[in-house]
Amino acid sequence: MVGAPPRARRHSRGDHQVDLYDGETGRPYEAGIAMLPESADVRRWNLEARALATPVATPTVSRVSTTSRGQQEERPHERVVLRPAREWLGGNHTVGVVGGDHSVPLGLIRATAERHPELGILHIDAHADLRDAYEGFTYSHASIMHNVMRETAVKKLVQVGVRDYCEAEYEAIQASSGRIVTFFDQDLAAVQLAGTSFAETARRIVGELPARRLRVVRHRRSRPDAVPNTGTPVPAACRFIRPFGSSARSLARAGAW
Question: What is the pTM of this model?
Fold first, then answer.
């Protein structure tokens, strides 16, 4: 649950010290960047959900699945994310979701998959997020990719850097008939130790994706020393965020991304 939504950046006295020019992209902000107004409904739902979730999430209380509540014709998170995503994508805008827990992008993923049935997702994370109704919550942050593969027309999910997962998640990957491809952290570290360049590894990763791609990055993919305040830090065997970004940019310039 979210304590507070992200707010648009306001100018401060120190802003003149921030260089906005980027050597690779120039001035991308000149194309226009906007955030929708903060929703009073989301704040209210947050308070209501906290009260409802506490007894379910308490270890001494039996888990109660919320699946039946999730079968409503239109769920609140769909109204907040799915509807606006459909509208802005229909206007040929680039749409992103920032903030919240990892369950938030489901509406955007669904809206994008509706427009692009061949959509693939590049999921960079320490966790597989393939749990079925984790701790009794159908739309748990730990169930986002399970719900994506169950509820949307996404063609393929490619996961990178996963290093914290349960046996059921591993079995789901193996039983997906190739619809889910996971590059585990320990495997990435092994090929790196064997001398394989990360440019080659990045080509393998991108090669698993269809032509249409959506990228989902979770800050827990980063090393705990890089993001010290994350809720569930997971040590990493392979440091690759920066080289992966460089390799992906090279592939993009070559027309492979």
Answer: 0.71
Highest mean pLDDT among 70-79, 86-95, 166-175, 227-236: 166-175
3 state SS for 99-123: CCCCCCCHHHHHHHHHHCCCCEEEE
Q: Beta partners for 30?
A: none
Question: Which tokens sit at 194?
Answer: 């064997």
3-class SS at 58? coil
Fold (topology level) of 40-51+63-253: Arginase; Chain A (3.40.800)
Question: 3-class DSSP state for residue 42?
Answer: helix
CB 6 within 8 A of CB 98: yes
Distance CA(94)–CA(164), nearest Å, equals 31
Report the alpha-carbon distance of residue 218 to residue 19 in Å, rounded: 25
